[in-house]
Amino acid sequence: MLSYQHAYHAGGPADLHKHAILAELLVRLTEKSRPISYLESHAGRGLYDLAAPEAMRTGEAAAGIARAAPEGPFATALAAIRSAHGATAYPGSPLLARTLLREHDQLTLCELHPAEHAALRDALAGPGVSIHRRDGHAGLLALTPPKPRRGLALLDPSFEVKDEYAQTAETALGVLSRWPEGTVMIWYPLLEAARHAPMIARLHDQLGEAFAHHEVRFADPAPRGMYGSGLAILNPPYGHAALIARAMAPLGAVFGPA
């Protein structure tokens, strides 16, 4: 999957769904003064330019962030990032997390694509950030449990290969078994083939009340392909349903009913 580059999809409806909820979860996890760890399996380049040819080509940002009026921590982080990098800047999940986290929190990021990994280092290298060029599934399993022991891991593969749904469930459950204090969040696409369904069913059956998921349809889906976005949350923090509702409330122009 070394062909995948997120620059074509940055700022689209799926990114908005993921980032608005991720921001709320990170703020909840940092309410206490103790440090946390943030891990990501497929980190991408960290920072994107929505005026770049890749983003302009797909039009996903025009259907996403360009139509949105986000509020709360995601809006705060986006404003700070655009103040530093320009009005057309858009964060990947790692930069969003770095912007919302504190100096004593730790980030551990995996990215296998050589060009994306190099760009990620340019965007985020610094104190408290560990960047690895390695497969995200193997990387997360090898790097957990982290120190500090509280925190969140994001699994965000491209799902270009059918087997990756089953692999993602394996990785998420493996991470949680090594790191029972952690929260694990999975982003997944909604496709007509419903390839995500067995993954969600397995996670629900295995975790019961320690599992939640949230799905949205795009207001203007493409005629073919992805029609919506899903998030699975393993070991969600207390009050997660209210956090999700708060994150999604101002984004009605981008999404249909949840």
Describe the fold and architecture.
This protein is of the alpha/beta class and 258 residues long. It is 40% helix and 18% strand. It contains ten helices and nine strands. Strands 5-4-1-6-7-9-8 form a seven-stranded mixed sheet, sandwiched between helices. Strands 2-3 form a two-stranded antiparallel ribbon.
Write the layout of secondary structure elements.
Layout: H1 13-29, E1 37-40, E2 47-49, H2 53-58, H3 60-63, H4 72-85, E3 89-91, H5 93-100, E4 106-110, H6 114-124, E5 129-132, H7 136-143, E6 151-155, H8 164-178, E7 183-190, H9 197-207, E8 211-217, E9 228-234, H10 240-248
The beta-strand count equals 9
In the sheet with the most strands, the strands line up as 5-4-1-6-7-9-8
Helix content: 25-40%
Largest sheet: 7 strands, mixed
Unreliable runs:
none
What is the beta-strand fraction? 15-25%
Number of helices: 10
Shape annotation = globular
For the termini, the CA-CA separation is: 30 Å
The radius of gyration over CA amounts to 17 Å
Structural class, judged by helices and strands? Answer: alpha/beta
SSE string, helices as H and strands as E:
HEEHHHEHEHEHEHEHEEH
If you average the pLDDT, what whole number results? 95
